[in-house]
Amino acid sequence: MNIEQHIANVVFHAVDSLYGGVHMSQIQIQKTRKEFDGDYTLVTFPLLRISRKSPEATAQEIGERIVADNADIEGFNVIKGFLNIVLGSAFWFERFGEIVADAHYGQAAPTGRNIMIEYSSPNTNKPLHLGHVRNNLLGYSVAQILKANGHNVIKANLVNDRGIHICKSMVAWLLYGNGATPESTGKKGDHLVGDYYVEFDKHYKAEIAALVADGASEEEAKKRAPIMLRAQEMLRKWEAKDPEVYALWEKMNGWVYKGFDVTYKALGVDFDKVYYESQTYLLGKSLVQEGLDKGIFFRKEDGSVWIDLTADGLDQKLLLRGDGTSVYMTQDLGTALSRFDENKLDSMIYVVGNEQNYHFQVLKLVLKKLGYEWSDSIYHLSYGMVELPNGKMKSREGTVVDADELIEGMVDTARAMSEELGKLEGCTEQEAAAISRMVGLGALKYFILKVDPKKTMLFNPEESIDFNGNTGPFIQYTHARICSVLRKAEEQGIEFADCTSADECLREETEIIKSLCDYPNVVAAAGENFAPSLIANYTYELCKLFNGYYHDYSILREECCATKRMRLQLARQVARVIASSMSLLGIEVPQRM
Question: What is the pTM of this model?
């Protein structure tokens, strides 16, 4: 049941019987603010024109009518022009019964909409780092949330496997690698290739400094540096399908893909489709030619192709270099076209950092000018950067937080803290290792996803692994605690599968049921706003509510059998919603801890 709509209908009929001439648009229902007594609040000001009475008198009259006509409504109070409506425990127990009976609680009916969400999008010249971790966790979670909202979701990864940055690692490996391989060095392939990206930058800077010392300007030195000229030549050869360059490119990319797969598995993310820029950039080039033929684009004297967007409040945008090689925009045009054609998409979501806001603004506009109306269905899920206590990360300088090291560090810290707090007592080594990994990854994922995606965030690993406060481990421990209670009930032979009510209901129990009732609305809002943070913070509040209740009231030692069974059912449903909501964040919850 949509409770707000139900209350709106009740109020509508009451107002219509009292005054007549009411429209549903005039009935404004909202959840009662925490500082007031009540469940839902009616704003009376839009009704004063038909009631011809003061706000207080109008609210009082409507309140008396709905209490008289509806057994669900226990009482009301009036605060100025606001009518606070109090629903009875019988109403909430009825809703509780609906939750228990719904095997797919929180899952919306199928919509038939096809949505693709692209995340990860790594470059094959370096390993994944903390910024990629936020990207992957955000993309995967939004995909899970959109599925829960009934959409057909295609999780896509566009691998940036070509371009000048890839050639930089290749050139450095040729010059300084001495034939090194992942096998010969014992390094993951993505780490090995990343080392040569850093190596390129080191030699490039040295060559620039030498040229400047010989009298060149810094700008001129950057263009003339021999190692950069060699990388540019390699890119031209790659686009010309030079056999030697292509073989090296395939070999080094193969090393990187194996490395990425290990990291993705550790993070618990996956993809339905993987696209490669090396396979889409040529389609992009054909779109550039189409734009030239239509007079939408223009060619400069150096042969480069541009579009003039100054009339749209932007600037001129490069679409193809003078030497005929592609830029990011070229391949993004081709990729977008192929995806919409192949998958019959209703929407395409790009999970990309906010430094690319302008890029996606241009992408949509260029596609629109080329006549592709579906460009309006492209959405850039822009997120803020992840910063560390000591500042920003820089890949080419080797100052990033490596994703693999971060994951293992979180697991090790979780193990140490869990042992210190005695949460692994009685566990086998295998169980302790599994719980430590679950808690370490849960801490990492929750810490990142509880923050609004648009905000730049400061990542502090020590803060994330805490069994108290708004953290993943706190939520995981709450789930494990409930599972422990349910196991003991099973050992005692207590049957409560069909128990969804009791003779009396505590206010705290009603509050927990209300929170459970909110879950589908939270999932819907998280889907509409692409905001896992709404799920995270809802789950934290639910856990806080349950833990306060558990501290104050006994479940298994409750003397009244009916009340005990109801409390066990309530605990089971809280655990169920915790597990469901955490799965939307890609977080596992332990049965014991």
Answer: 0.91
